[in-house]
Amino acid sequence: MADEVVFISDGQVAEQGPAQEFFTSPETPMAKAYLAGELLF
Q1: Cβ-based neighbours of 6, under 8 Å, separated by 6 or more
Q2: Exposed/middle/buried for residue 30 (C-beta within 10 Å: 0-12, 13-18, 19+)
Q3: In what helix (H) or strand (E) does residue 12 lie, and over which residues does it extend?
Q4: Could you identify which of 1, 3, 31, 36 might form a hypothetical disulfide with 26, taking C-beta atoms 3.0 to 4.6 angstroms apart as the criterion?
Q5: CB proximity list for 31: less than 8 A, separation 6 or greater
Q6: Is residue 20 within 8 Å of residue 8, measured between CB atoms?
């Protein structure tokens, strides 16, 4: 697994930080929806 994650939404960096933190407590609604499997691309 990566040490850092960059989550991009609509071509913009929406969230960036340690992977452990991203996967356990995402900050943005878009990242939360993505991790919950609610977004289809």
Answers
A1: 13, 15, 16
A2: middle
A3: strand 12-18
A4: 31
A5: 7, 9, 14, 15, 22
A6: no
pTM across the whole model: 0.78
List, for residues 1-41, the tens digit of each pLDDT value: 789 999 999 999 999 999 999 999 999 999 999 999 998 76
CA nearest neighbour of 23 among 8, 34, 13, 12: 34
CA torsion through residues 21, 36, 1, 7, sign: negative
- Other C-beta atoms within 10 Å of 37: how many? 7
Domain boundaries, the chain: 4-35
